[in-house]
Model the fold of this input.
Amino acid sequence: MSAKISVIIPVFEGEGQVHNCVHSLLSQDYPRELTELIFVDNGSKDRTLENLGQYSDRIKILTEKKRGSYCARNKGISEASSDILAFTDMDCTVASDWLTSIAGGFASHPEAAAFVGLSLGCNENSVSQSVQHCYESTMKSEVIQENGICTRIDTRNCAVRREVFAELGGFNEELLYWGDEEFGKRIVKSGRVINYQPLMQVVHKNVNSVDLWVEKKKKEGYWVYRQLKQLGRHYTRLFFPKALFIYLPLKNAEEMIKEKVIHLEQEQILIQEALAVGNQEQINRLMLHIMDTAFVLGTMLARLEEVEGEQTSVFSQVRA
Done:
């Protein structure tokens, strides 16, 4: 007998994206009576809720006022009625057999606590293609091992047994970023297994300009610094050792920020040259460098605010 599956999608300011996401979920080859679709709005001020309302007879619409996608996901978990909880994002569309692949994975691997699927990219140009390359490089180097076991989950495309949340608790609501990584590591630390299921496929809409990529990674670095400094060095060492550099002394912060900005500008010039000649290999390499440089710059901006005692960065005024 097939299992019932609840799909949980947090949404924020997604009026132009939710239709495609909803349509893909309503077009599943999985039995409709075994499917529960839960969209959790996280304070949208655009027409997201109005657009979702067009499907109110087929989806469940919730709201969560506490800021953060992981707060929204926890709200969805609390309202879900299934033993298998699947997650994707509003800027994703899922394959028609997505739920069938999830159910088949759990049926074939009763020992698995969770599954991570294959996330493809909706690549409009060379930049979005390169952003997908950055994502896949991270997944291959940090997440998916050669034996098909994963080190964490990715809420862009994953499914988790409800009992795991019951035993380990929900997502950490103090995290605006990396909450799926933290929860996935809690799964692994508990002795459970996360499997990779490439038949579970979604398509994600990637950013399509270098400027958007830079701002996205700077913003991520800014908020990662703020959240981890609040949670402490021990927590960071336990779950995010790659970010321990934020605790290292930083002398002459303003000068270092200027140097990092110059470095970033130089990389952006180089990538424009690579784009002009269509050198995708060079574009991919530079986008990886830009990803790291912009992220570190974001942490520096947050640290400078901390030192000066006031929030002056544009990111402190913008929702994560």
The mean pLDDT is 94. Residues 5-205 form a domain with the Spore Coat Polysaccharide Biosynthesis Protein SpsA; Chain A fold (CATH 3.90.550.10). The two ends are 41 Å apart (CA to CA).
